[in-house]
């Protein structure tokens, strides 16, 4: 077989001999000519023989190829390249020995003595750069000198590297680091390191070297995982820390299970020296072109013996607790996002729910700590193909945690409300003419009529007692007003009850079922007198509910009997029309730069009618007798149902609304092309408007307040907004409004100035975002103050916002109020490695700083330093962290902090 290889080499040698250097002369890499003529790269491919070499060897060189037929050796000079299966080798000089099956590569030196063409060896996804490489393509063993190789996120520097047939590497006099420089800033120094690609790196005794200074930090052995690019199962190493509330802890330790290419599950836990623990299960799933999502469930046992002892004492004294007492809490997060496909339904979910104290104990940000309300929804929506119909079903939940106060005397229970389910069926608005005749419209006025329909069924339940009792006790009082207060208090009082299996019946009985019907009727749009647009409108809606109340006074027992019907119908309708037009005006200036100024005015008037739903014909409100001579009026028949049902209020509406909007812009000659007739538009006033409403049906105060608004942009950087309300009525000396018109006087005004300055970015930052943020203390640290991404390409940013609100009291007995607030935030690069971010908010009314923070970031190449400081508020404190950037060495850090939970 070797003779076959020899004959092939000999034949190739005879073919290309005239173009090669002498086969008897072996050129040393050190004497390689540096300024040879440009020659097209020679490339030779050897057909794979049936022998030790299992596939085709492809090699090329830009300078020359020399074959020694007798010794079965090939020499490649200048940008030499070899490909053998998954193995590739590039260097200034490569030698192929077909007898020993060894590939050898070395660099060359140029005229200045600098090494060029350093050998680079690749095998699959692994890359090695070294001074000298020898590799046996038959045994797959190799010897590499002065090597730098990457394993996962780490780099291994070594004097000598041996590779065996199992693709394992033994590195002698080794340095392991995550710094990608040739001379790293830090490294782990070990006499021997063994690397198993795509699995782990092992070392014997080692110590840490920072800035070429050996430190006593080290251990008897080291283990550094280097996982594959695709997901694989493995142990998650925990992080450590300390906090005052929970003591020393290990957090986020556990196991990651890669079930398949689409689903991955991690089960992690925390354990604390002062007692307590936390367990978290996180599932992520993904299917390309279909959906992706994440489901996590966390259970936390927070133990606080000190708070337990002080709880009763503090509650009795009406005091506060700095930390919550011992508590068990759970939290569920689920997000599911599908890829929308025509003709298919869409299932989506966004769930965030759990115990009220969970986010207080495991806070990850200030907004998370302060948020009192969380909402969740799960829905399925589908449009029926080739039809105007669609349907959907949604499950919704919301919870109110009662705020973030630590005052035990003010802590309110968690109130949860559910919509189980919310079923919707709809028909999009269609032409009535087309539906009835199935003909193509010809442009007649009646062909513009459209009709649409939507019905929505809801089942609303809430863990809050609000059910009206069968009878209401009316206390013997002399005043009708007092009796009304007792009556109203008895009806509307609510109290939350716990959510558990024992209360499922009460939860269902406390719910309310209703169906909302909405009819969309369009009457088209018409031109009047060529310049006016007339749009008539009609609306009708109806609500069916399962509760309707009636009241009967029992004089013998002095109680009001409440009867409940299982069906109630609330309907409302209205009609109207609007008339609008556009008026244009242009002033030709013909100046040096200003060509013209254009004014656009858009006046509109609209008429609206709706009946008086408080009249007895609708029976939405009743007069209820609560005593022998005492009554209360306008008591809603649907009572508790008003929490969910939009019962219309009383009063006839028949009036005109007036609205006018103005826009002013200027046409100027372009600065970039002043010699031509190029122009550009500059807006002087984006919008200047006024609106009001006049109700003909009202018995008094027919004219509503006049609202003014102004929006514009100053100097292309400042957004200016001004709103004001004018009151057209007179006030008497007692400060009461009387039905007499005067010149409108403004009752309140607000102004807002905002600017955002940001020079154009020069591109993406070359600095990679830090991936090793410090571990949280109890899950409650200052991570929210640490930058997750710092862009040093933007030299500075500045955003400012000033708001002013003035409420003028037209009542001489009440003082006017003025509030002013100013806020700003931004960042500045002190150098190309130092960045400072700032944020502050000042309240002029109370003369204090409501919120402020300062963040400093230092790019240390393979390290990060972050300093965060919050000087005010509950979260006041600081955080100083110096950490290795690589997540592989996330425990290599120094952290010092104080916050609201560990001061």
In short:
It comes from Pontibacter qinzhouensis. The protein is mainly beta. The chain has seven helices and 55 strands.
Give an account of the 3D structure.
With 903 residues, the chain is mainly beta. It is 7% helix and 55% strand. It has seven helices and 55 strands. It has a 30-stranded antiparallel sheet that branches. It has a 16-stranded antiparallel sheet that branches. A three-stranded antiparallel sheet has the order 32-38-37, with helices on one face. The chain is elongated and about 120 Å long. Residues 1-23 form the signal peptide. Keywords: Signal.
Which structural class best describes the helix and strand composition? mainly beta
Give me the Rg, rounded: 40 Å
Biggest pleated sheet: 30 strands, antiparallel
Provide the low-confidence segments as ranges. Answer: 1-51, 403-411, 466-494, 761-788
What is the percent of helical residues?
Answer: under 10%
Backbone shape: elongated
CATH architecture of the domain at 2-213: Sandwich
Distance between the termini: 80 Å
How confident is the prediction overall: mean pLDDT? 77
How many strand elements? Answer: 55
CATH classification class of the domain at 2-213: Mainly Beta
Assembly context of the chains: single chain
CATH superfamily of the domain at 2-213: Lipopolysaccharide (LPS) transport protein A like domain
CATH topology of the domain at 2-213: lipopolysaccharide transport protein A fold
Q: Provide the β-strand percentage band.
A: over 45%
Number of helical segments with 4 or more residues: 7
Pfam families: LptD_2
InterPro entries: LptD, LptD_2
Signal peptide: 1-23
Protein name: LPS-assembly protein LptD
């Amino acid at each position: 077989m070797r003779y076959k290889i020899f004959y092939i080499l000999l034949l190739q040698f005879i073919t290309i001999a005239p173009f090669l250097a002498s086969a008897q002369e072996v050129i040393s890499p050190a004497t390689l000519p540096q300024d040879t003529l440009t020659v097209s790269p020679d490339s030779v491919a050897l057909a794979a023989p049936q022998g030790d070499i299992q596939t085709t060897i492809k090699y090329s060189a830009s300078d020359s190829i020399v074959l020694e037929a007798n010794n079965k050796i090939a020499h490649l000079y200048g940008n030499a390249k070899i490909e053998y299966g998954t193995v590739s080798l590039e260097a200034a000089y490569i030698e192929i020995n077909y007898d020993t099956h060894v590939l050898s590569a070395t660099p060359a030196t140029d005229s200045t003595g600098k090494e060029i063409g350093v050998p680079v060896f690749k095998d699959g996804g692994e890359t090695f750069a070294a001074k000298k490489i020898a590799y046996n393509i038959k045994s797959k063993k190799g010897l590499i000198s002065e090597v730098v190789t990457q394993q996962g996120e780490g780099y291994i520097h070594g004097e000598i590297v041996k590779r065996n047939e199992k693709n394992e590497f033994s590195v002698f006099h080794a340095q392991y680091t995550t710094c990608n420089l040739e001379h790293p800033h830090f490294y782990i120094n070990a006499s021997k390191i063994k690397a198993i690609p795509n699995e782990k790196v092992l070392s014997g005794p080692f110590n840490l070297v920072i800035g070429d200074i050996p430190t006593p930090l080290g251990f008897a052995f080291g283990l550094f995982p280097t996982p594959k690019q695709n997901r694989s199962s493995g142990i998650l190493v925990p992080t450590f820390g300390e906090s005052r509330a929970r003591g020393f802890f290990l957090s986020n330790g556990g196991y990651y299970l890669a079930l398949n290419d689409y689903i991955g599950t991690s089960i992690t836990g925390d354990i604390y020296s002062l007692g307590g623990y936390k367990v978290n299960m996180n599932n992520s799933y993904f299917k390309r072109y279909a959906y992706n999502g994440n489901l996590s469930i966390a259970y936390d046992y927070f133990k606080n013996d000190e708070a337990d002892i002080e709880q009763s004492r503090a509650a009795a004294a009406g005091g506060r607790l700095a930390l919550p007492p011992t508590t068990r809490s759970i939290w569920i997060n689920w997000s599911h996002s599908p890829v929308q496909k025509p003709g298919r339904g869409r299932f989506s979910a966004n769930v965030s729910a759990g115990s009220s104290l969970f986010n207080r104990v495991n806070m990850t940000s200030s907004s998370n700590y302060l948020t009192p309300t969380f909402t969740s929804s799960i829905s399925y929506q589908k449009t029926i193909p080739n039809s105007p119909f669609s349907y959907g079903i949604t499950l919704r939940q919301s919870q109110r945690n009662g705020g973030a106060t630590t005052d035990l005397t003010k802590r309110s229970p968690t109130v949860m409300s559910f919509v189980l389910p919310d079923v919707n069926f709809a028909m999009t608005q269609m032409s009535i003419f087309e539906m009835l005749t199935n003909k193509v419209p010809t442009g007649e006025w009646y062909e513009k009529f459209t009709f649409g329909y939507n019905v929505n069924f809801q089942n609303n339940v809430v863990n809050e007692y609000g059910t009206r009792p069968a009878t209401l006790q009316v206390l013997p009082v002399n005043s009708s007003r007092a009796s009304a207060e007792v009556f109203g208090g008895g009806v509307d009082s609510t109290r939350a009850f716990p959510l558990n299996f024992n209360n499922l019946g009460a939860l269902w009985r406390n719910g309310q079922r209703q169906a909302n019907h909405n009819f969309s009727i369009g009457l088209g749009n018409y031109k009047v007198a060529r310049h006016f647009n007339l749009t008539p409108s009609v609306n009708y809606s109806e609500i069916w509910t399962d509760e309707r109340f009636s009241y009967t006074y029992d004089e013998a027992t002095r109680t009001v009997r409440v009867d409940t019907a299982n069906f109630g119908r609330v309907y409302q309708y209205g009609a109207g029309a609007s008339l609008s037009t556009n008026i244009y005006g242009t002033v030709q200036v013909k100046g040096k730069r200003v060509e013209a100024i254009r004014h656009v005015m858009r006046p509109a008037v609209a008429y609206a009618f709706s009946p008086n739903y408080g009249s007895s014909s609708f029976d939405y409100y009743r007069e209820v007798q609560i005593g022998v001579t005492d009554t209360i009026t306008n008591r809603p028949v649907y009572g508790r149902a008003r929490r969910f049902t939009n019962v219309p209020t009383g009063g006839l509406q028949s009036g005109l609304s007036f609205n006018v909007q103005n826009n002013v812009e200027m046409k100027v000659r372009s600065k970039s092309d002043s010699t031509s007739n190029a122009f550009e538009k500059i807006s002087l006033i984006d919008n200047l408007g006024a609106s009001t409403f006049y109700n003909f049906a009202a018995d008094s105060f027919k004219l509503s307040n006049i609202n003014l608004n102004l929006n514009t942009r100053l100097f292309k950087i400042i957004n200016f907004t001004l709103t004001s309300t004018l009151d057209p009525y007179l006030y008497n000396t007692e400060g009461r409004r009387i039905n007499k018109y005067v010149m409108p006087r403004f009752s309140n005004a607000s102004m807002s100035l905002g600017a955002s300055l940001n020079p154009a970015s020069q591109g993406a930052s070359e600095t990679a975002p830090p991936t090793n943020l410090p571990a949280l203390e109890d899950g409650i640290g200052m991570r929210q103050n640490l930058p997750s991404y710092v862009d040093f390409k933007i030299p500075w940013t500045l955003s400012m916002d000033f708001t002013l609100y003035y409420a003028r009291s037209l009542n001489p007995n009440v003082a006017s109020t003025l509030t002013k607030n100013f806020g700003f935030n931004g960042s500045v690069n002190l150098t190309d490695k130092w960045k400072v971010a700032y944020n502050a908010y000042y309240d002029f009314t109370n003369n204090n700083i409501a919120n402020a923070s300062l963040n400093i970031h230092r790019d240390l190449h393979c390290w990060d330093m972050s300093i965060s400081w919050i000087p005010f508020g509950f979260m006041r404190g600081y955080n100083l962290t110096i950490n290795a950037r690589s997540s592989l060495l996330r425990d290599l850090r120094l952290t010092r902090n104080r916050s609201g939970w560990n001061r």
